[in-house]
Design goal:
Blueprint: E1 7-11, H1 16-27, E2 31-36, H2 39-51, E3 56-60, H3 66-80, E4 85-88, H4 103-131, E5 134-139, H5 143-146, H6 152-172, E6 177-184, H7 190-193, H8 197-205, H9 215-226, E7 237-240
Parallel strand pairs: 1-2, 1-4, 2-3, 4-5, 5-6, 6-7
Helix pairs in contact: 1-2, 1-9, 3-4, 4-6
Bound molecules: NADPH dihydro-nicotinamide-adenine-dinucleotide phosphate.
NADPH dihydro-nicotinamide-adenine-dinucleotide phosphate binds near residues 36 and 37.
Length: about 250
């Protein structure tokens, strides 16, 4: 019960990695708010959380709009009184080689992944500043560290998240708000299921632990960074990738 009595907001928590974070955090004692554009899936995950004996809210939330994010934060504060943990997990891909990449695909990925993380951090950290405590975990990617052909938009958004993590960690540290990032490698989710088989085999061959990661592996890292065990860690990026990228 490492998160007993805490309230966590998980963006994109309806399915995939976000869903796994919600369920693990609930098992560890946290009440959970899922903010997702996919309200139908969010409600299913919220029902699973309630079955674990925790409070759960699912909100339709598009992280690209600061106004909508602020409305959601106000609703959470009215209903649950506080937000102790923010997991900026909502993310999308719209792949294509840089020379052929449409402006709309560049803009959409930056808007959800990078601006969405900024919007939620800005709105939630105001409440955390008053509380003089908080944990923010941003889901980046190893692609933001090493780059990847066909993912200029995604790589730039995730590298931006790593830089944003360091800056917000410095700005918020004096009020005991820790901000860290988790950079997953190749994780078994719907996002990776749609990749071509040839590319999957190539990536698998580059993983020293010789297997794909599971959403639980990412959730475990988020739990550590949100728990008291990580009280003296801020501004860091924890890579969860089976050894693909070693500094
Ligand atoms: P999924 O696509 O499985 O789930 C993402 C969730 O976010 C979906 O419920 C999606 O809704 C929701 N979402 C999309 N856009 C928005 C938005 N504008 N506002 C709020 N919610 C939104 O993704 P994963 O679980 O695979 O990935 C989660 C995070 O982990 C992402 O940030 C991703 O970049 C990162 N990551 C994933 C890796 C992997 O291998 N899977 C590797 C490295 C990083 P909808 O159902 O409508 O799409």
């Amino acid at each position: 019960m490492r998160l007993q009595g805490k309230v966590a907001l998980v963006t994109g928590g309806a399915r995939g990695i976000g869903r796994e974070i919600c369920l693990l955090f609930a098992k560890e004692g946290a009440d959970i708010v899922i903010g997702d554009v996919n309200l139908a899936e969010a409600e299913k995950t919220a029902a699973e959380i309630k079955a674990l004996g925790r409070k759960s809210m699912s909100l339709h939330l598009d992280v690209t709009s600061f106004e909508k994010v602020q409305e959601a934060v106000n609703k959470i504060l009215d209903n649950l009184g506080k937000i102790d943990i923010l997991i900026n997990n909502a993310g999308i891909t719209k792949d294509g080689l840089m020379l052929r990449m449409q402006d709309a695909d560049w803009d959409a990925v930056i808007a959800v992944n990078l601006k969405g993380t900024f919007n939620c951090t800005k709105a939630v950290s105001k409440a955390m500043l008053k509380q003089k405590s908080g944990r923010i975990v941003n889901i980046a990617s190893i692609i933001g560290i090493i780059g990847n052909p066909g993912q200029a938009n995604y790589a730039a958004s995730k590298a931006g998240i790593i830089a944003l993590t360091k800056t917000t960690a410095k700005e918020l540290a004096s009020r005991a708000i820790n901000v860290n990032a988790v950079a997953p490698g190749f994780i078994q989710t719907d996002m990776t299921a749609k990749l071509p088989e040839e590319l999957k085999q190539k990536m698998l061959a580059s993983i020293p632990l010789a297997k794909l990661g599971l959403p639980q592996d990412v959730a475990n890292a988020c739990l550590f960074l949100s728990s008291d065990d990580a009280a003296y860690i801020t501004g860091q990026t924890l890579v969860v990738d089976g050894g693909m990228v070693m500094a």
